[in-house]
Amino acid sequence: MPYPTPRPPAPNGPGRCPRCLLAVLWCITTANRVPFAVEVDRDPNGNQAVRQDHTGRWLTRQLTRERPTTEADEHLHMPHLANCPAPESFRTARTGGRARRGVRPVRWQR
After folding, report:
1. Radius of gyration of the chain (CA)
2. pTM to 2 decimals?
């Protein structure tokens, strides 16, 4: 293959959370194909409908007003972010850990 692959495939199936190292089920959202971690155990209070398609990929969708219940072979799971013991590290890592302190003055203010 002359060209490298553009990016590795999204994690899918059983795995571990990179922050707390608990067991999670990596799914791909049906809306925009983004990897999303859900709890391994089924939860009747969850808001993620999870199913496995014919190729073995785990897919998830959030329950909405238009589709409020599970369909066919879907099961309810809870998102892992709701129960992750270390959710703050995710939020600070995204912003880079720097807090904005002020506004840079423009030339006429110097």
Report:
1. 19
2. 0.71
